[in-house]
Specification:
Layout (H helix, E strand, L loop, with lengths): L1 E11 L2 H5 L6 E7 L3 E8 L7 H24 L3 H20 L10 E7 L4 E7 L3 E6 L2 E4 L16 H4 L1 E6 L3 E7 L1 H4 L3 E2 L2 E2 L1 H9 L2 H11 L5 E10 L1
Antiparallel strand pairs: 1-12, 2-3, 3-4, 4-5, 5-8, 6-7, 6-9, 9-12, 10-11
Helix pairs in contact: 2-3, 6-7
Length: 230
């Protein structure tokens, strides 16, 4: 069976934002208690006036909603759950947006683990990625890398968002990455071997050192839920 043994997140501001005196536009958070483990990540759209603040609000609202209501959400049809999440996020953005939600656009993804049932709820909207690691390698959740540029405030966000319940047994880790992070993680079409090994073993320091050394133009953020299989 799968047992949670650690959650971790990190965010490194991109070179372009640093040089222009801008704040990190990513937001990331992890939560764990005796029943669930949760990782949430949002990448604010830099071109939007409140992209970074929108990402922070999206993460806070999503985390609060899932922690409080996860038992109810497991039982709902996926599309209904998607609607509830996005409605809550938009409501949380309303005071910041001052009538124009497009000023607060961001991606959103999360991984929610129920420790008792070993089920995972995975959600992805936009070009942030969700990776699933097992002893057989790494799989990308959703339609594909960078395939969707719609955001939390897009009119068709409900249709574009992907939510799925999967069995967590056999997985060694689940990782969320902003596009600034995952774009530096590849050798050709595959994740770098040292990063795949680091995710599977819960070696979060290797990821932090990788992103610190890249000096990426874009912000780089990730969250990791590390599992063991006993």
């Amino acid at each position: 069976m799968s047992v949670i043994i650690g959650v971790y997140c990190s965010s490194v501001i991109g070179r372009a934002h640093k040089e222009n005196g801008l704040q990190n536009q990513d937001a990331v958070s992890v939560f764990e208690n005796e029943r669930i483990a949760l990782a949430v990540l949002s990448d604010g759209v830099s071109e939007c006036e409140f992209g970074g603040q929108g990402a922070e609000a999206a993460v806070k609202v999503t985390e609060r909603l899932l922690v409080k209501n996860h038992q109810k959400l497991w039982k709902m049809p996926p599309q209904k759950t998607v609607g509830i999440i996005l409605n809550e996020v938009r409501h949380g953005l309303s005071s910041l947006a001052e009538g124009d939600l497009s000023r607060c656009a961001s991606t959103l993804c999360f991984a929610l683990l129920d420790k008792v049932s070993r089920r995972l709820m995975l959600f992805k909207l936009g070009d942030s990625n969700v990776y699933l690691f097992s002893k057989d390698g790494c799989a990308l959740f959703g339609k594909g890398q960078g395939a969707d540029t719609r955001f939390t405030v897009s009119p068709d966000a409900e249709a574009a968002a992907e939510l799925e319940m999967v069995d967590g047994v056999g997985l060694t880790a689940v990782m969320l990455c902003s596009d600034g992070a995952w774009r530096s993680m590849y050798d050709g079409n595959r994740l770098k071997d040292e990063l795949t090994a680091a995710a599977a073993s819960g070696d979060t320091e290797t990821f932090k050192q990788h992103f610190d050394s890249q000096e990426n133009t874009d912000d780089s953020s990730f969250a990791l839920i590390h599992l063991s299989n006993n």
